[in-house]
């Protein structure tokens, strides 16, 4: 039994090493593939997905049957399901990525030195990206396409629930690569449900440059804990909004209602309101009552729990990500107390301030180091598309390399190109 | 015995956790410290170093005595030694860093979305930087100052040989911080020679954002292998220069002689020449003979070993970093063979091409992914100062975050500041 286990592990390891070596070789070619060729591959893939929609739906039915057998929740079954409309969405998304600006080769900076050297800093691909995701099969297309756009080879490891759907979509991506004359190893899908493959990816410092986990807290936490390879991710979006005493009442109402109720399950949804003590009975009460009227469970501190409809919060409510129709609320003495609370409890994703006082907003912007800070705007704007950065592979809260929305440009590195004329150093 | 060991490890771990927590707290304050205050701290430190030069030299004498006792090599003793001239160098370097542009708060990009949102991407400090270095005591001042300039707290772990010198210099940095009203924990020096402190730093994902090793291959290799924290470093500088058939003979001679002989011990010194077969008997022979005349040991492949003065290379000479007056040399059929050789053997630090043919240079620039590529220029220019980027903490060959010379700007991250007017998402 032990030997069989060892042999199986070895073969997964060998398989992953083979995938890694192929990805590395492909990435060397992709690094100088023209923008036109990558564009053609993505358009080809979009066409192939649309042509193969019946096969994809048939593959998806296999996954749905497996999901029913495994007793997946209705929400997970819904995430898994593909129909013609959702496949149209995948096609549109592939086309949108195809039409985005190609970041590779962009001159980021250019200058001349007194020695006569001309120096350019140009954008290059990162190399090989590993994407580990859960049930949504569209990630196969989106992540594969975005990595290719930035000239990277990608190793995709989808959830076991979407195994057949991902395989069918991946076949279309390969068709796009072939039609454009790009190496098929540019986009590889790990062909096993074995979890050993994930462990191998997390350790693969020799062939993966960065890992992007796409999924719930369980997956992201596992990846952040175990990866030896750098990771672009956020574990949680514990988003705060501070309502200052100088807030405009209407803006406070609009921003908070939108930030909580537009969609409660996204990482930019607000989870905690901090209200200046001077405006508790005016703006604060108005905002909280409007939330209660919208069916939101408001968990307030001692003072706020006295407002009709508000329930009492416990210590566990501070720093909690509900991803649901629930919000915590707390009174603070001033912007500094709000900043201190956010520093203690935030996940460094996105925070907002509502105020007409520019000096308060400035202090909030300066003293909080979350990836995204919003002034008089809904935190639900925390999204690569809304930032005008195109498709995103996720939002990162780390401080290294990529931060905030991670789009094609953030999936690149750079190199220095230096031109002299026989120039030597003194 | 075992208990004593455990207790000692625990106390080092506790000490390092205390240093880490203090650094993190200081970094939160430094993040919004004004440029003026950081400037004042650095000028104050420069003045303190000059005033304390006699104490520093006395401390250095203790280190030199310890070094003699330990039997350090003359080269290491020289690196360790401080005199008034070298202290003047430290003072000048502190002043130069003080006068550099402050990168924090710089608006990297700014745009407006159709929703009315105004988005700024602004530079922020990385947080806490750990610097692990060997015998040169001036690194204490340089690294401490550069991290502070970029708004980072720094934890310095100097070599055991320079223990007293580093302590004396560190005391002056603290004087600068105090005089400017900045927290002393902004620049901490690990107050023990115990190697456990290094291990603790390498694992300290909770309080160190990036580790910079400064030293030889042994130290850098250890850090790259063992660190859980991201690392900015290069392990080796295996620098290649390709002399194309369209090379200008004089430029080839000037560039190669400078790249090899100006200083042989720096990471930008060329270690391997690749010569186009068509110019072996003309440019190639001229360059190699000039190197031999300068006392360089040239180790050539079969063809080149026939040139008088050139010795035969072995397989081990390809991909070798000599850091000495030795160079490998090989004939290649064309630029593609040169590129293939470099891809196989380079350490992705710096490579050069000498040619008058722009298409050859373009191909070399596109298809090689080293951090720095030089065309008709000496590879010894691979240096933050020569790039006009100010003081550098080192050169990085990784693809994540910082690459090439790592100066103050490369020691920063960024965040997004978004301004609306009660703006909500549809």
From TrEMBL, chains A, B:
Top-level taxonomic group: Bacteria
Reactions catalysed, as given in the entry: L-glutamate 5-semialdehyde + phosphate + NADP(+) = L-glutamyl 5-phosphate + NADPH + H(+)
Pathway given in the UniProt record: Amino-acid biosynthesis; L-proline biosynthesis; L-glutamate 5-semialdehyde from L-glutamate: step 2/2
Enzyme class: oxidoreductase
Keyword NADP: yes
GO MF annotation terms: glutamate-5-semialdehyde dehydrogenase activity; NADP binding
InterPro entries: Ald_DH/histidinol_DH (IPR016161), Ald_DH_C (IPR016163), Ald_DH_N (IPR016162), Aldehyde_DH_dom (IPR015590), Glu-5-SA_DH (IPR012134), GPR_dom (IPR000965)
Keyword GTP-binding included in the entry's annotation: no
GO terms (BP aspect): L-proline biosynthetic process
Aldehyde dehydrogenase domain sequence ranges: 21-287
Compartments (UniProt record): Cytoplasm
GO cellular component, one term: cytoplasm
Keyword line: Amino-acid biosynthesis, Cytoplasm, NADP, Oxidoreductase, Proline biosynthesis
Pfam families for this protein: Aldedh (PF00171)
EC number(s) from the headed UniProt entry: 1.2.1.41
Gene3D superfamilies attached to this UniProt entry: Aldehyde Dehydrogenase, Chain A, domain 1, Aldehyde Dehydrogenase, Chain A, domain 2
Protein family according to the UniProt entry: Belongs to the gamma-glutamyl phosphate reductase family.
NCBIfam families attached to this UniProt entry: PRK00197.1, proA
PANTHER family the UniProt entry points to: DELTA-1-PYRROLINE-5-CARBOXYLATE SYNTHASE, GLUTAMATE SEMIALDEHYDE DEHYDROGENASE
Function: Catalyzes the NADPH-dependent reduction of L-glutamate 5-phosphate into L-glutamate 5-semialdehyde and phosphate. The product spontaneously undergoes cyclization to form 1-pyrroline-5-carboxylate.
Record-given protein name: Gamma-glutamyl phosphate reductase
Organism: Pseudooceanicola antarcticus
């Amino acid at each position: 039994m032990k030997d069989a286990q060892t042999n199986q592990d070895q073969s997964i390891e060998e398989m992953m090493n083979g995938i890694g070596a192929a990805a590395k070789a492909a990435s060397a070619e992709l690094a100088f593939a023209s923008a036109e060729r990558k564009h053609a591959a993505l358009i080809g893939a979009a066409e192939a997905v649309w042509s193969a929609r019946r096969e994809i739906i048939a593959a998806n039915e296999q996954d749905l049957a497996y999901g029913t057998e495994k007793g997946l929740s209705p929400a997970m079954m819904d995430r898994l399901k593909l129909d013609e409309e959702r496949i149209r969405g995948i096609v549109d998304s592939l086309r949108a990525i195809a039409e985005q600006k190609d970041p590779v080769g962009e001159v980021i900076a250019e200058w001349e030195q007194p020695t006569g050297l001309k120096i350019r800093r140009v954008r290059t691909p990162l190399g090989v990206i590993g994407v580990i995701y859960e049930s949504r099969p569209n990630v196969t297309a989106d992540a594969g396409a975005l990595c290719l756009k930035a000239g990277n080879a990608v190793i995709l490891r989808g959830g076991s629930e979407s195994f057949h759907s991902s395989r069918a979509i991946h076949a279309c991506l390969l068709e796009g690569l072939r039609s454009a004359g790009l190496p098929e190893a540019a986009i590889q899908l790990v062909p096993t449900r074995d979890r050993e493959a994930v462990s191998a990816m997390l350790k693969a410092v020799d062939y993966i440059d960065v890992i992007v986990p796409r999924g719930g807290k369980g997956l992201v936490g596992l990846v952040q804990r175990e990866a030896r390879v750098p990771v672009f991710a956020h574990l949680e979006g514990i988003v705060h909004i501070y309502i200052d005493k100088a807030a405009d009442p209407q803006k406070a109402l609009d921003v908070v209602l939108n930030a909580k109720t537009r969609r409660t399950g996204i990482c930019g949804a607000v989870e905690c309101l901090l209200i200046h003590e001077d405006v508790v009975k005016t703006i604060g009460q108005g905002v909280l009552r409007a939330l209660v009227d919208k069916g939101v469970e408001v968990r307030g501190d001692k003072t706020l729990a006295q407002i009709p409809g508000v329930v009492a919060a416990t210590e566990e409510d501070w720093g909690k990500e509900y991803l649901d129709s629930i919000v915590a609320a707390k009174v603070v003495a001033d912007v500094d107390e709000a900043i201190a609370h956010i520093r203690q409890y935030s996940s460094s994703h996105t925070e907002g301030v509502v105020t007409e006082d520019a000096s308060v907003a400035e202090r909030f912007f300066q003293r909080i180091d979350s990836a995204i800070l919003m002034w008089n705007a809904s935190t639900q704007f925390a999204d690569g598309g809304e930032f005008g950065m195109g498709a995103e592979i996720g939002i990162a809260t780390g401080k290294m390399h990529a931060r905030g929305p991670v789009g094609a440009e953030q999936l690149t590195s750079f190199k220095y190109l230096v031109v002299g004329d026989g120039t030597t150093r003194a």
